[in-house]
């Protein structure tokens, strides 16, 4: 879909570079955006026009959101400053660059601050990959909210524009896993003026220019991808109830579907009317056929979601609201949404129009320094170390995995850079200190969706499916990987480039449609190991994830092994799986463990389902309903894995090889009637004996380093066993065992 093919209120979308009057001047600008008054003085600035406050350390690299937004606004002629990881205990740190002339831009950073801070078991992480030295605790919980409040405290009259993934995923009433309750829209709690969701380049440029032209922030209500407070529906708009978009299903006639069904007082009043359960009939709310013919244009229609007070106390209505929200995510046909919070209304405009290839090139060709700001000195920033020599070639994902929030933020329509722009970035990378000739990744949210799109722009603009690849690959989807193959070949020929690895997650159900791509990948771009994510083996669970069956993995594995053998390389697949995902029974995890043992996999690092805000799987987790289908009070109940014991059990099945898990697994298998899996034979899952351990399982990778007592584990070679860092290669002779460092994990 071309961005110029869509319109806002009947007018063509203005491309990003149409605003640009200062492009030539940008290349003469300072290497970094200023972080102090001294830097501002050196540039001759008396004030910043825009100040960006971020929860990440400032790295001037296009993989960091604040760097993209900052450089983009700079290219429009604005003076942009950065306040990175301020002390939030007072407003003082938020005043260090002075008062901006236009607005504050507030973001938690590249990650949701709660996911960044807490594990899936709600335990505090000891580190933060986006902070110098990986130090934890450099940002507050609910970072965007706290920063906005402190910014308002510092300068009450300056507009606040909030953005980033944390804001995107909290733009409406959302389930909060850490408090186990539904919270209000972040816009209200943070008291921001505008919330920008999704990729915000076009919206933030539009807001900046309109404020510079003297517009009041509260009058800017027509920009796509923005949320704001509004008193009532403006004249000329048609309001459509969400139940006319998607039926709620069985609704008890004695209680209004939007009344709090957990309010005992209301229930008693309704019951006093004399109706009994035998009087209740099944009622489904469906769109009026006559209404369909009277609906005005979609760009003048707003859908009213159930109010915050309703979804807060009624999980079924929450699942319904979540389903409607996801139905309105295609920018080609999405309508505005409105949700009441008490006496206030949160209005969400339709999602942003995807950037065209020309616009993507414009954004990524900006003069990034590609290194952290000098204020950090020699401090290592782990997230930067991971991506410093990687290149983002596209955005978006049409996979629609229910546990993932990429599509809620970046959208389902792939936004591609041109081949020339990507090559230019690799050539610039050769000048970055520390470059050894190895490009760690050419990818994005996925490794192999570059230039894949619907065959028909007309069909794409009308489609409301949550996924292009589930339950099978859509017949209208172009799966030609030739553009990606050509890009790989051209990049490999660049002078100074020794190796290009692919570190992004591979969508293997698409890859098997192009064996030539698999051959190219396996022959030239795998560094010994390739990570892929089947996530599970059981159909019931996979259907709740919207992931392909394990048979597709088997097809890809055959191609991978065949082409590895042809290339004369010994390479391995590392599959990733999720424990405790909604829809997972104990038997499903047991079957997965059996599959893992049968195929010789021992998972070192296990991912437990993490209910991120606004994800479809999170709605399943909270409501026990399946929003992928019509949500009714009698509809399919989804198995939910809650409670520490069950979550630990599901995780233990993935780590069936850990002796510390054997007592729990023995007990569970006996309760499940599968004691036949306990024994000392090859066909058994776990042994019936318990070895003497110190209570701490040591993974195969850690066996390559010293133990806590300073005595290394001796591992002997066996027939058919290769000693590597993954299987326990002992330290080299002549090396002080107390000073052995863990091997560097290669990406790819």
Layout of SSEs?
Blueprint: E1 7-8, E2 11-12, H1 23-26, H2 37-43, E3 50-54, H3 65-75, E4 80-84, E5 103-107, H4 113-117, H5 143-154, E6 160-162, H6 165-168, E7 174-176, E8 181-183, H7 186-190, E9 194-196, H8 201-212, E10 226-230, E11 238-241, H9 264-271, H10 289-294, E12 301-304, H11 308-313, H12 315-327, E13 336-341, E14 344-348, H13 357-364, H14 382-387, E15 390-392, E16 394-395, H15 406-410, E17 415-416, H16 419-429, E18 438-439, E19 441-443, H17 457-462, H18 482-492, E20 499-500, H19 508-511, H20 515-524, E21 529-535, H21 539-545, H22 550-566, E22 572-579, H23 586-598, E23 607-608, H24 616-623, H25 644-654, H26 662-671
Helix pairs in contact: 3-8, 12-24, 18-20, 20-22, 23-25
Protein architecture, described:
This protein has 748 residues and is an alpha/beta fold. 29% of the residues lie in helices and 11% in strands. The protein has 26 helices and 23 strands. The strands form 7 sheets. A 10-stranded mixed beta sheet has the order 4-3-5-6-9-10-14-13-12-11, sandwiched between helices. Strands 21-22-23 form a 3-stranded parallel beta sheet. Strand 7 (174-176) and strand 8 (181-183) form a beta hairpin. It starts with 6 loop residues before the first strand and ends in a 77-residue tail after the last helix.
């Amino acid at each position: 879909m071309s961005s110029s093919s869509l319109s806002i209120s009947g007018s063509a979308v203005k491309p990003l570079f149409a605003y640009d009057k200062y492009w030539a001047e940008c290349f003469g600008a300072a290497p970094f955006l200023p972080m102090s008054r001294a830097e501002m003085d050196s540039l001759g600035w008396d004030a910043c026009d825009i100040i960006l406050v971020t929860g990440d350390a400032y790295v001037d690299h296009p993989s960091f959101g604040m760097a993209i937004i900052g450089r983009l606004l700079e290219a429009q002629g604005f003076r942009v400053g950065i306040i990175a990881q301020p002390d939030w205990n007072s407003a003082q740190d938020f005043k260090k660059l002075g008062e901006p002339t236009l607005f504050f831009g507030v973001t938690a950073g590249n990650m949701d601050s709660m996911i960044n801070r807490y594990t899936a078991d709600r335990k505090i992480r000891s580190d933060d990959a986006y902070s110098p030295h990986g130090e934890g605790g450099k940002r507050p919980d609910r970072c965007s909210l706290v920063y906005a409040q402190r910014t308002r405290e510092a300068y009450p009259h300056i507009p606040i524009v909030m953005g980033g993934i944390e804001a995107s995923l909290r733009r409406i009433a959302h389930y909060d896993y850490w408090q186990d309750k539904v919270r209000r829209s972040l816009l209200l709690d943070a008291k921001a003026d505008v919330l920008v969701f999704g990729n915000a380049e076009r919206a933030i440029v539009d807001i900046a220019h309109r404020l510079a032209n003297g517009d009041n922030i509260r009058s800017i209500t027509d920009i796509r991808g923005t949320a704001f407070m509004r008193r009532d529906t403006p004249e000329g708009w048609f309001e459509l109830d969400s139940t006319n978009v998607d039926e709620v299903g069985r609704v008890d006639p004695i209680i209004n579907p939007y009344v709090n069904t957990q309010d005992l007082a209301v229930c008693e009043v309704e019951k006093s009317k004399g109706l009994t359960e035998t009087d209740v009939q099944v009622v489904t709310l469906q769109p009026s056929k006559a209404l369909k013919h009277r609906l005005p244009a979609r760009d003048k229609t707003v859908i009213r979601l159930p109010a915050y007070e309703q979804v807060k106390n009624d999980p079924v209505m929450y699942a319904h609201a979540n389903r409607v929200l996801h139905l309105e995510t295609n920018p080609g046909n999405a309508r505005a949404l409105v949700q009441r919070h008490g006496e206030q209304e949160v209005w969400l405009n339709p999602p942003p129009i995807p950037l065209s290839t020309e616009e993507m090139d414009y954004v990524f060709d900006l003069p990034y320094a590609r290194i952290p700001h000098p204020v950090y000195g020699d401090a290592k920033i782990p997230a930067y170390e991971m991506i410093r020599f990687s290149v983002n070639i596209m955005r978006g994902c049409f996979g629609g995995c229910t546990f993932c929030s990429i599509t809620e933020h970046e959208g389902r329509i792939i936004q591609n850079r041109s081949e020339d722009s990507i090559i230019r970035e690799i050539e610039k990378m050769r000048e970055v200190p520390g470059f050894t000739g190895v490009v760690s990744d050419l990818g994005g949210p996925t490794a192999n969706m570059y230039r894949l799109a619907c065959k028909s722009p007309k069909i794409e603009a009308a489609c409301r499916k949550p996924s292009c690849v589930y339950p099978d690959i859509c017949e209208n989807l172009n799966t030609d990987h030739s553009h990606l193959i050509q890009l790989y070949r051209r990049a490999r020929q660049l002078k100074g480039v020794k190796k290009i690895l692919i570190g992004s997650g591979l969508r293997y159900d698409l890859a098997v449609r192009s064996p030539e791509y698999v051959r190219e990948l396996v022959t030239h771009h795998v560094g010994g190991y390739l990570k892929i994510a089947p996530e599970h083996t059981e159909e019931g669970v996979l259907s709740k994830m919207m992931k392909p069956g394990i048979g597709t993995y088997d097809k890809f594995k055959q191609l991978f092994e065949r082409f590895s053998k042809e290339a004369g390389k010994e390479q391995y697949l590392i599959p990733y799986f999720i424990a405790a995902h909604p829809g997972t029974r104990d038997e499903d995890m047991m079957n997965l463990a059996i599959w893992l043992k049968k195929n010789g996999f021992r998972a070192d690092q296990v991912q437990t389902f993490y209910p991120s805000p606004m994800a479809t799987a999170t709605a399943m987790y909270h409501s026990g309903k399946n929003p992928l289908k019509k949500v009714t009070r009698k509809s399919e109940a989804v198995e939910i894995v809650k409670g520490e014991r069950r979550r630990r059990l599901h995780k233990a099945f993935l780590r069936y090889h850990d002796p510390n898990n054997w007592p729990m697994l023995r007990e569970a298998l006996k309760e499940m009637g599968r004691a036949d899996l306990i024994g000392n034979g090859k066909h058994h899952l776990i042994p019936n004996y318990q070895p003497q351990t110190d209570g701490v399982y040591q993974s195969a990778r850690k066996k390559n380093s010293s133990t806590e007592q300073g005595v290394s584990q001796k591992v002997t070679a066996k027939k058919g066993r290769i000693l590597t860092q993954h299987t326990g290669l002992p330290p080299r002779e002549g090396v002080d065992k107390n000073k052995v460092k863990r091997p560097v994990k290669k990406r790819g």
